[in-house]
Amino acid sequence: MSDVAPRGAEPLVLKVLALAFTVFIVGYILVPILVTVAMSFNDAAMIRFPINVWSMKWYADFFGSPQWMDALENSILIAIGTAAISTTSGVLCAWAFQRFHIPFRDMWYILIMMPLFMPGVVLGLGVAIAFGGISIGGYAFYGSRELVMLAHSLWAMPLVFMLMEATFKTIDYRIVEASYDLGGGPVRTFFEVVLPLVSTGIVSSLLFAFVISLNEFVMALFLTDRDTQTLPVLMWLSLRSAGTPRLAVASVILALTVFTCLTVIMLWYIRQLRKVAR
Amino acid sequence: MTVSTALELRNVIRRFGTVVAVNDVSLNVSKGEFVTLLGPSGSGKTSTLRLVGGFENLDGGSILLNGQRIDHLPAYRRDTATIFQSGALFPHKTVAENVAYGLRMRNVPKDAIMKRISESLDIVRLKGFEARYPAQLSGGQKQRVALARSLAVRPAILLFDEPLSALDLSLRLQLRAEIKRLHDELKFTAIYVTHDQGEAMAMSSRVAVMNAGAIEQIDKPETVFHSPTSEFVYTFIGESCCLPVRVTSAGIEDKKGQAVGLRLGERLAEGECRIYVRPSRLRLISEAALLPNQLTARIHFIEFLGDLYRYHLKAGALELAADHAGSIGHGVGDEIEIGWRNEDMRVFR
Amino acid sequence: MTDAVRIDDASYETQRTAQERRKLLAPWILMLPALVIVLVFFGIPTVYMVRMSFNLHMDQRLYVPGFTFEHYVNLFSNPLFTNAILTTIKLALVASLATVVIGYAFALLVWLKPARWRLLFIGLALAPLLISEIAIIFGWWMFFPKNGLLSYGLLSAGLIHEKISLMYTEFAAFVGLVYVTLPYCFFILLSIFDGIDKRLLEASADLGASPLKTFREVMLPLTWTGILVAFSQSFIWTMGTYATPSALGPDTLWTMGFLIQEQMLGKHNWPMASALAVVLVIGVAAVMVVTRSMQSERTSFHV
Q: What is the b/e burial string over C136-168, where b = at least 16 CB atoms within 10 angstroms of the residue's CB?
């Protein structure tokens, strides 16, 4: 903005406004994050500012609590399951859209994308009433982690599909043809040539799906029971009863899990870039 | 069909919507033959090649490879190997892995694969590049790897899809000579698609000139060049000038009805026609005097092309160009005589 | 030789048909997992939900099979539900407007700033996207109350003399909602800005237009589609949410999402919850259709 020619007092006003807005937006985004991080190191049992004594007490409490650790485990298992289910189905579906002529293509496209635009509360309700009483071979489907994975896939799969549809369009189709030409059948070509060409898209898809599932709690609230409830669900229920710094710790753990994944992906991506440039 | 036929196309048809890309094409390629499909873009040459490779579906006719119908087989079950325009190397595999790919798909044993990799890279003179990735190769090297990758599987027929068009001129000439050398050495069977007539002439056993989805003429390069059977082939191969004229009882006039100083050795039937001559076959001034066909024309402008001068000439509404080694001592605006032999002229109506 | 080919013809035909069948079948095999997920876990539940909304609710049972419009009539006559519908629309409208305004300013700022700031700002905008809504709620939950950071900060700065609480106010709910939807708006708008040539601004300034005029005459028309998409995106999102307003807002702030959860998990009235969900989905769909049509009108106008 600095190279706008001076025109009276206007640029100065704009500069001040821009600065004020920058301060506002940075503060706005950082406030809940900083509050949470600070509170997680609080020693007291109450949510109260100022924080007088700092300690790691609540972290010890979190990792010592079977209930919270179970919830964390559930969350991670469900997130991994969602990532696997939605990435597999989304990638295959996007490949079908790229490679083949599909009758009523637009209709299928809309159908696959539709769940993404549905409120979580509606999806949760729908799946809960449809599968509420169902058990398969004595195994209660309702309340199981698998059902939550599939419900979360309703959001994650369309996202993966959208992402991969765009990614598949970027590959040089001659390379795929070259594989067929040299005798690679559709399956071997897909695994040996197509997937490596879109590996960045696949990894991003996995990450997206993982994060969506890890953070989601409305559908999970409808679909889990005491044994399978996820960390966000447990946090929501605890918040309704009483907030303690343990919740802040849970928030930090949840966010750390996401950022750890993100870092791993970044490192992988950088390695990938090096490989190409080598 | 004899035993030596490698590939046979019978009345092959390919449509894209209402456009007929390949219109009733029949073609025989003998073993060891190098056949070029030559034509402008949109002439159906690439579509024909892709039909053979199995990348497009046939709308009619049949394709036989070594006497077996293959048109129903997917690309991965055909014994063909394509060298693509871009090379289409697998970017995530090394040179050696690229070459090994087709062999692995054919379940060739490991030690045999190793042997064939080194053989193939030897042939294309890329020994020592085994561990490189495609991103580390130049354009010409990439095409050599593509060639080695296709040669390694020893296909019944090699399909070249304008493999040199993405390269610059000097590299193109160099690789062109190399492909020619390899064909002489290895005697593989090949179809080569190009729009570059120089490539077609230099490498081919036979050239098939394609236009509008059909083969206009197929013959040895020399025959195609010297005795084109159609107006399209004549104008597409080599440079030519077109003289549109009307022959009347009174003489020859241009399209505007003005008489031109054109004297032909053989009488033409009355009516409109197009006379074609090649700039390189025209003789000027004194050299023209003894030739049966002559035209008086004015020099419009002169281009210096290094080895020769190109005279752009006008006679009434007729325009043509003539090449001459060295200057003829006439300048712009001068009227000169041009002459040519009967065999250097074509008349189409 | 022709004979040899003739003999092949029969087996050729069978091979060809098999090949063609495989080609027709292949896309469906690839699409199968995705279609199973969508049809079984979205399609069937939707049908179930619509059917459920017409069932009876009697005694303390979850539902009694039957057919009645009672729940829909109730929905549009009982003030509890009509208020919830109005509250939902009002909240979504106001929150989306605020989100678009803030998101627009944020995206504009990032677009105008030198490139070295860009990554930092994008990282900042990603944070609310990567953090769970529940963690965001909790963050604000510690900021607004009497013993929260806001009250403490203002008191320490001497701006107020007594502890204040903004917790359980519409403002708090509003702040939380905007926070959650802001990144979507921001990224949609930033991608629109990135498609604009920055020299347009200089050109406009050269022609003597004031920054305000440049904004109105140049920037706004160019970014109109992005604004629409961003608005409808956050509108849809806020319509369906219930956690943030119910946790941060006053008890009177009952949105449709909250009532669905309340009817389902609290009151065990499945038909009523379903009827609410059906109306909510129709609302979301209506917003999408309206935005789509406005978008295409706009484009056709430009063409």
A: bbbbbbbbbbeebbbbbeebeeeeeeeebebbb
Distances A256 to A73, A259, C130, C132, C180 between C-alpha atoms, Å: 14, 5, 10, 11, 19
Q: Is A65 exposed, middle or buried (0-12, 13-18, 19+ CB in 10 A)?
A: middle
The reply to whether omega before C211 is within 30° of 0 (cis) is no
Measure CA C265 to chain center. Answer: 23
CA distance B253 to B259: 4
Token pair listed for A141: 């489907």
Window from A106-110, C2-6, C108-112 with minimum mean pLDDT: C2-6
- Subunits next to A (3 or more Cβ pairs <8 Å) are B, C
- Residue B69 to residue C5, Cβ atoms within 8 A: yes
Q: Write out chain A in H/E/C secondary structure.
A: CCCCCCCCCHHHHHHHHHHHHHHHHHHHHHHHHHHHHHHHCECCCCCCCCCCCECCHHHHHHHHCHHHHHHHHHHHHHHHHHHHHHHHHHHHHHHHHHHCCCCCHHHHHHHHHHHHHCCHHHHHHHHHHHHCCCEECCEECCECHHHHHHHHHHHHHHHHHHHHHHHHHHCCHHHHHHHHHCCCCHHHHHHHHHHHHCHHHHHHHHHHHHHHHHHCCHHHHHHECCCCCCHHHHHHHHHHHCCCHHHHHHHHHHHHHHHHHHHHHHHHHHHHHHHHHC
Q: Domain limits of chain C?
A: 1-52, 72-294
Give the containing element (helix H, strand E) for B168. none
What's the mean per-residue pLDDT of chain A? Answer: 88
Between CA B217 and CA B232 the distance in angstroms is 10
> In the structure encoding, which two tokens stand for residue C9, read together?
């013809």
pLDDT digits (tens, 9 = 90+) for A180-237: 999 999 999 999 999 999 988 999 999 999 999 999 989 999 899 888 999 999 999 9
Closest partner residue to B88 (CB to CB) among A175, A184, A188 is A175
Residue positions counted in chain C = 303
Chain A residue at shortest CA distance from B137:
A278
pLDDT of A137 strictly over 80? no
* Domain C72-294 CATH class label: mainly alpha
Check CB contact of B82 with chain A, cutoff 8 Å: yes
**CA-CA distance, B79 to B156, in Å (whole number)?**
6
Asked if residue C300 has pLDDT above 70, the reply is no
Q: Which burial class, exposed, middle or buried, applies to A11 when counting CB atoms under 10 A from its CB (0-12, 13-18, 19+)?
A: middle
Angular region, B81: left φ>0, alpha ψ -120 to 50, beta rest: beta
User: Which residue out of C36, C89, C109, C142 would a mutagenesis test of the A interface target, given it has the greatest number of A Cβ atoms within 10 Å?
Assistant: C142
Q: What is the domain partition of chain A in residue ranges?
A: 58-277
Set of chain A residues whose Cβ sits within 8 Å of the Cβ of C130: 211, 215, 255, 258-259, 262
Beta bridge partners of B294: B263, B339
Q: What is the pTM of this model?
A: 0.86
In this structure, are residues B328 and B285 in contact, taking their beta carbons and an 8 Å threshold? Answer: yes
Among C26, C97, C173, residue whose Cα is nearest residue A97? C26
Coil, strand or helix: which one is C106?
helix
Q: What is the CATH number of domain A58-277?
A: 1.10.3720.10
Is some CB atom of chain A closer than 8 A to the CB atom of B90? yes
Q: Taking a C-beta distance cutoff of 8 angstroms, is the pair B228, B216 a contact?
A: no
**Contacts with B68 from chain C: Cβ below 8 Å:** 8
Alpha carbon distance A234, A62 (integer Å): 12
pLDDT range class, residue A1, cuts 50, 70, 90: very low
Residue B149 belongs to what H/E stretch? helix B139-152
Chains that touch C (3 or more CB pairs under 8 A): A, B
Average pLDDT over residues B113-139: 92
How many angstroms separate the first and last alpha carbons of chain C? 62
